[in-house]
Design brief:
This protein is of the alpha+beta class and 364 residues long. The chain has two domains: 223 residues, no CATH class; 77 residues, no CATH class. The protein starts with 12 loop residues before the first helix and ends with a strand. β5 and β6 form a beta hairpin. The chain has a three-stranded mixed β-sheet, covered by helices on one side. 38% of the residues are buried.
Length: 364
């Protein structure tokens, strides 16, 4: 009964494929972090792939699961879910429901049926989340800005811009006030070993406060600068729902064939030799468009509800074998959807991919 709503997936198929980035995200134009050519067209192609995988997955989960052996194999491999017609394990049934709801939430967003959109504000974004293609839309600072208009806040002399680390805090200040909370955090520690660092966005007109252990790397500091960390860390995307505007940031590494997945889109994967090769790693067939799908799971189900407890197919599958609950892990959901779609729609000869490698296709 809980899958009844999914029976309407085919009806929405046309609408999903017609959706544009500007329907879903606020178009902020040029500026730091903008998705400039060719990134804008690339992300549009990623959106089309996401629609394809979401529709495929929901159609399968809303169908006769017991008759779909490929789906049952993938559900067991990625999440430890063994589908039964009756007397299904309640824990596994709950995991199946979690996976389904996560993909359905992305579907709702793609159909512009997102109940979690924030209220429209003066920036004209209409409550839509913002999409960036680099993290330089935020900059590390100690200076104070007005959250309403984004203008500098000046000290009593009218000349010196206020500093978050030294601005006077009234004796009767309420620590629960968000601005007072920022000032209190920014005073912890002392130079050069401050406990917190602030990142201001003139677009969002809001700060992010990070602990020193999570300070953005590089010079100038930027979240996407994972290559400046020790050891080096590849950073593909970041979703935030804690500011005045929800945001998705796609990092430059996510567009890089040498650092991210090997193919731009599903079509390019299907045209490759990798999709036709036996014993091929699933990761080596993956389209880079999976990054957008991953971040949309964070956005629509909530960052706190979708912790990254495994990345890449091998780690996701190993964690499942360790009996970890992977039903909320975005990469597990994304690669489950990709493995199932590749088995059913990939080029000939078709393979089964649920083990993380291509193998002779099993009974359907």
């Amino acid at each position: 009964m809980r899958y009844q709503a999914l029976l309407f997936v085919p009806f929405f198929f046309w609408l999903s494929n017609a959706v544009e980035l500007t329907d879903l995200f606020f178009d902020r134009g040029a500026g730091p972090g903008s998705c400039r050519p060719p990134q804008d067209e690339i992300v549009k192609s990623w959106l089309r792939d996401t629609v394809t995988l979401v529709d495929s997955t929901l159609a399968a989960l809303g169908g006769a699961i017991n008759n779909d052996k490929a789906l049952k194999r993938n559900l067991n491999a990625w999440f430890g879910i063994k589908v039964k017609a009756t007397d299904m394990d309640p824990v596994e049934a709950d995991r199946l429901d979690t996976v389904t709801r996560s993909v359905q939430s992305v579907k709702d967003f793609l159909e512009m049926r997102n109940p979690s959109l924030k209220e429209p504000q003066i920036d004209g974004s209409g409550g839509k989340p913002w999409l960036f293609c680099n993290s330089d839309w935020q900059h590390e600072t100690e200076l104070m800005f007005d959250g309403d208009l984004g203008l500098p806040i000046y000290a009593a002399d009218g000349v010196t811009q206020g500093n978050l680390r030294t601005w006077p805090i009234p004796d009767n200040a309420n620590p629960a006030d968000p601005f007072i909370d920022i000032l209190l955090k920014m005073r912890q520690g002392s130079a050069p070993d401050w406990a917190h660092y602030a990142y201001w966005s003139p677009d969002i007109r809001d700060y992010v406060i990070e602990k020193a252990s999570a300070r953005y790397p590089g010079n100038p500091p930027s979240w996407c600068n994972g290559q400046d960390m020790t050891p080096e860390e590849q950073r593909f995307g970041l979703t935030s729902v804690s500011q005045l505007r929800d945001t998705i940031t796609i990092c430059p590494d996510a567009f890089d064939e040498a650092k991210s997945e090997p193919f731009e889109t599903i079509d390019l994967t299907f045209a490759s030799a990798a999709a036709r090769s036996v014993r091929m790693d699933l990761e080596k067939t993956a389209p880079r468009s999976l990054t957008l799908f991953h971040e949309l799971i964070h956005l629509t189900s909530g960052v706190e509800n979708t912790p990254d407890v495994g990345t890449k197919p091998t780690e996701c599958l190993k964690n499942r074998l360790r009996k970890l609950d992977m039903s909320r892990n975005p990469d597990s959901i994304v690669f489950f959807a990709w493995s199932y779609y590749l088995e059913n729609n990939g080029p000939e000869p078709k393979f089964s991919w649920h083990s993380g490698k291509s193998a002779a296709r099993l009974a359907q």
